Amino acid sequence: MTLPDSLAARLDPVYANWLLASNPPVPAGFQPTLEQMRAGFARQASISNDAVDNAPAREDRTVTGRDGHAIPIRLYRHETCEDSPATCVFVHGGGWVLGNLDTHDGICVDLALRTGLNVVSVDYRLSPEHPFPAALHDTLDVLTSLADASMALGLDMTGYRLAADSAGASLAVSACLCLRDQVALPARLALIYPALGADMERPSFAENRDVPGLSPELMRFFFVSYVGGETLPDPLAAPLTVAALDGLPATFIGAAELDPLRDDATDFAARLDSSGTPVQLHTAGGLGHGYLWVRRQSPAARDAFTAVVDFLLPDTH
User: Fold this and answer.
1) Most Cβ neighbours (<10 Å): which of 84, 218, 258, 278?
2) Phi-psi category of residue 233: left, alpha or beta, with phi > 0 → left and psi -120 to 50 → alpha
3) Within the chain, how many helices (H) and strands (E) appear?
């Protein structure tokens, strides 16, 4: 696969090379199975998961969901700190269909190292096996359980942060909408190239159709898998469609110039601003969807990740 010259000239070169490597040519008409898609996503994420020095201690645990099932979580702790740091909960992306604790392990390690926060990663149930609202319920159940059991887990959930990328951002926003005026509502919310709407005909999809990876067709497959059909079952499945967005925490939105989901990010930022919610919108030039995977290799992606870190830092607000 090669990129059109006009597109290659606009893309960050490191990100462009990653796009080409992670989207190899396939035979015409090839339709991967769900298992192949999940394995491919894991390979795509592997560039992000190299071991680093001084990584926080990892601890895998479970939280009991509302119907009695176990929800896996992974804790990243700074064990050398005299006082327990504040906490950041992370909800991974992957179109509600892909991803797990391992695919986003490196991102959580870097969040913990760069912010000094303890991090908790959530392994919610995936679609299509578990369509909406299963993933949202899992996210909510983890957040409320952590708030209730923070002392037993050795976590400080006071003023905790909630961060998420892509489809995980949809779950994070909808969880916050459900938690408005409750003690489990986070103090800050960071959304990275968020998937928040249900419209795959938005201008940013057409403008970025030639960028490999997230096509309108693939995004539609993800969304139909998530909601269990062609009809939106509840505005919380696409929080950009929720009528009232007041009462949300201070929010950072990391958009990408060449992301098909860019309009979701910018429109959500505008709506938060209109509702009176403090919001920061950072648009990363030369980058597209998934740029967190190359945050260690690309200076542009590193700068975009630093903007997220700066928002989450304990002493920035």
Assistant:
1) 258
2) alpha
3) 11, 8
Rounded to whole angstroms, the Cα distance separating 35 from 42 reads 11
Q: Are the C-beta atoms of residues 147 and 157 closer than 8 Å to each other?
A: yes
250-307, pLDDT tens digit by residue? 999 999 999 999 999 999 999 999 999 999 999 999 999 999 999 999 999 999 999 9
Instruction: Give the separation between CA 149 and CA 194, rounded to whole angstroms.
Output: 29
Contacts of 63 (CB under 8 A, 6+ apart): 70, 71, 73, 141, 142, 145, 146
Q: Alpha-carbon dihedral of residues 261, 10, 190, 262, nearest 10 degrees?
A: -20
- Tokens 């695919």 belong to which residue? 103
Q: What is the identity of the amino acid at 185? A: L
Domains and CATH numbers, the chain: 55-312 (3.40.50.1820)
Q: In the chain, what's the furthest Cα-to-Cα distance?
A: 58
Interatomic CA distance for residues 289 and 134, integer angstroms: 25
Residues annotated catalytic, as ranges: 166, 259, 289
41 phi, psi to nearest 5 deg: -65, -40
Q: What is the pTM of this model?
A: 0.96
Is residue 255 within 8 Å of residue 193, measured between CB atoms?
yes
Q: If you search the block for the tokens 């064990």, which residue do you land on?
A: 79
